[in-house]
Amino acid sequence: MEQKKDRILIHTCCAICSGYPISYLKDMGYLVSAYFYNPNIYPDTEYQRRLEAERTLCKYLECDLVEAPYSPDEFFQAARGLELEPEKGKRCDKCFELRLRKTAEYAKQNGIKKITTSIVISPHKNYQKICQIGEAVAKEYDLEYVAIDFKKKDGFLKTNKLSKELGLYRQNYCGCKFSLR
User: Fold this and answer.
1) Average predicted confidence (pLDDT) for the chain
2) Helix axis angle, 127-140 relative to 90-109, nearest 10°?
3) In this predicted structure, what is the pLDDT of residue 2?
4) How many Å is the maximal CA-CA distance in the chain?
5) Which residue, among 60, 2, 69, 51, has the nearest Cα to 31 in the 3D structure?
6) Quick one: the chain helix, strand, coil %, rounded to 5?
7) End-to-end CA distance of the chain
8) What are the chain's domains?
9) Where are the alpha helices (DSSP H) in 14-150?
10) Is the separation of the CB atoms in 53 and 14 below 8 Å?
11) Partners of 35 in the β-ladder
12) Per-residue pLDDT, 4
């Protein structure tokens, strides 16, 4: 397939979720860079395990990986007052917005005009809601949010298969301190 000239920055939440989306975007002809910004992940040891798995995945897929600084205070500030919200509630929306906003900021600063996220591959996440947040944030930065439902065509099965083949770390909770309840 002929390589597109379009670059895309994909926010990656973890290696388990990002394997198939990165492959899919590359197959579409995009020049893909992965952006690992996840201040919500708690504790630091969990963050480091997920980051190391993402490094392994990106090396395997020959995908550039941008590692944003780990800044849990940014997440706690965004989640302030929403600590008791249930999973999939307003706290999660704020978390998605925070991570997609940082992705958009990085994209804008580096001349990348398209963004997306691997979060939507999870069957536990609301695809429509995340896309609405992504589109709103992208619009603020004069970018395009590329809405792809990576779950389709057995995407979740494919991403899990790839992660098992590579022996990647598999977490058992979303990531934040509040999702451990």
Assistant:
1) 95
2) 40
3) 54
4) 49
5) 2
6) 50, 10, 40
7) 46
8) 7-180 (3.40.50.620)
9) 15-27, 44-61, 72-79, 90-109, 127-140
10) yes
11) 11, 66
12) 57
